[in-house]
Amino acid sequence: MFKKSFEAVREEFSGQAAKSYVIDIARYHRMQASPGFRQAAHYCLERLREAGVQAEILTFPADEKTQYWSARMFQEWEATEATLHLLEPEDERRKLADFRDCPISLIQRSAPFEGEAEVVLLEDGEEEAEYEGLDLRDKVVLTKGDLDRVRQLAVEKRGAVGIISDGMRETPPVRARMDLPDALQYTSFWWTGQEKKCFGFVLSPREGEKLRGLIKKRVQDGQPPVKVRARVVSRLYDGEIEVVSALIPGGTDQEVVIIAHLCHPRPSANDNASGSAAALEIARTLQKLVDEGRLAPPRRGIRFLWVPEMTGTYAYLATHEDEIERLVAGINLDMVGQNQELCGSSFLIECPSQALPSFAPPLLERLREELLGEISAFGGTGSYALFRYAVTPFSGGSDHYILSDPSVEVPTPMIIQWPDKFYHTSQDTPDKVDPAMLSRVGSLAATYAYFLANAGQGEATWLGYEMVARFKRDIVRIVQEKVTEATHLSLEEEGADKLGETIARLRKKAAYLLEREQQALASLRRLASEIAVEGWQEEVAEFARQELARGEAAIRVCVSERDWAEPAERERDEWEEKAAAVVPRRLYRGPTSLRPYLNQLSEEERERWWQMRKERKRVFYTLPTLAEYWSNGKLSLLEIADLIELETGQRDVELLVEYFQMLGKLNLVEL
Hints:
Elements: H1 3-12, H2 15-25, H3 35-50, E1 54-62, E2 67-68, E3 71-72, E4 76-88, E5 94-98, E6 113-121, E7 140-143, H4 147-156, E8 162-165, E9 199-202, H5 205-220, E10 227-237, E11 239-248, E12 255-261, H6 269-291, E13 301-307, H7 311-318, H8 321-324, E14 327-333, H9 340-343, E15 346-350, H10 360-368, E16 375-376, E17 383-384, E18 389-392, H11 400-403, E19 414-418, H12 435-454, H13 457-490, H14 496-522, H15 534-558, H16 574-580, E20 585-586, H17 603-616, H18 619-630, H19 637-648, H20 653-665, E21 669-670
Helix pairs in contact: 1-12, 2-6, 2-12, 6-12, 10-12, 13-14, 13-15, 14-15, 16-19, 16-20, 18-19, 18-20
């Protein structure tokens, strides 16, 4: 079914060649809409044409007038020189940053500047209270805080001319602030056309602490302030963004998509020269295998896209809307090449949201099992992998979150290595890239794409049986988890009151998963329109019913000495009442690209939104995105909140109500 193609791909795919592509791509400063990105795009085009792959570069406007769905474009940017020197005190004079040495030392998209300025120390600068009594006009602030927030408070409101950032994003458990004392954190301004523009530089945590200590000491001693000289030679202008598009043609007009973002500052090796390089080697490998007759020409085309992250995906899809329905599935390659021992990473398959159930995640998971028998057990009676791996639910943050939006409907899992100690820093260099890992990922993604490109009645039938088997495994596990939970509750003094709720939650979860699985099985008709899925849908329904009955019986036996009752219906709180009265209808395809619209809000509204973001951290991004996915113009926001809770286990109705009220005010949805 797939083993022959997997073996052919693994034999031909070269992890070493892919790493050489990583090294080459990492030499380009690949900011979105920049000369460096353009150079990297032409590099990819040349490699594809050398391999005999049909390829072209598509161009789209990079200006402040163009919009693709909800995503507003931005101007092209170029920097040719940027330095930051410490001038005073004289005995500490030295160069602090130089764009030529390390492009990440400049905050990307910095405006041009030349002059001297005093430096004012902020701890993080994220709250108004920290600015009381400070005169920032024509000064530079040193901060560890959120760049956009500091720009608003220090530059926009108080007249600062620039920012020095010594922040380092922490990614526990692999990275704390001082774990990379000499690394620089990748940061960027994202101008929407109406802000007060400024420049900025980045210091390492070690250099930042030295400068902080110096400023504090001079203040304590009553000495003149620290002063710097900054020079930034840069320009913002109407230009272009590029998308590299390649195709291994098929016998029909349907396509499978392999996508990787090509952008990010030099070097950005794993993020995402590794995904871009893997896609190049996949294209070369499949083209060669087809040309030499070792693999049959695919029935569907295999489309490759190298994009500026998110922006390029919006632009490509919005200008190819008539072709979207021909895209049967995709795969996103983002940060795939890590040496796990150096980076602290795990090889993850991130599934699309359950708002778009499909055959794609179980297929990719099954194919990855072919990679897991790398070494035999001591007695030769089994085998196992030499790398860390997992399957994770949707969290977003890369191009698959646009393709997998139900309004686009191209189910696209992502392969990623996470967490990464060197993520978004100057130390994300090619020496952290492992050719063996590139080979694993490339072989897996190529086989996945080729399988889907050739899938017909037989392949779809096999996959249907595979999906049924995996659903049965999953429903057994979930039921047993609730049996275990109920058993523990029965031993607690107050546990009896929660037993009824546990069984009620189990029933809801089982019904939800069954409905999702039945829709996933129906998605097999994308691969073979004539396939009969009704038998499988009935089979999983009956299995879920029996397993749920078994689980409830087990709970009753395990807690036989405790009384429990069906839970009473809970009264809605204030936010749930508001959510029940709102039915959102989306006005754009794809998830909302919100950033450019926020400056249309009042200062009070922006402040409220910032505080919610700070309090809720990561769920702040994931839950609103999932809520948009479920917004079909029929479900109330309360029903959507219930579905998200079933999908993720997380619930924040207040956040969803405020988010959609804001989208409504900005004319991004209809309520």
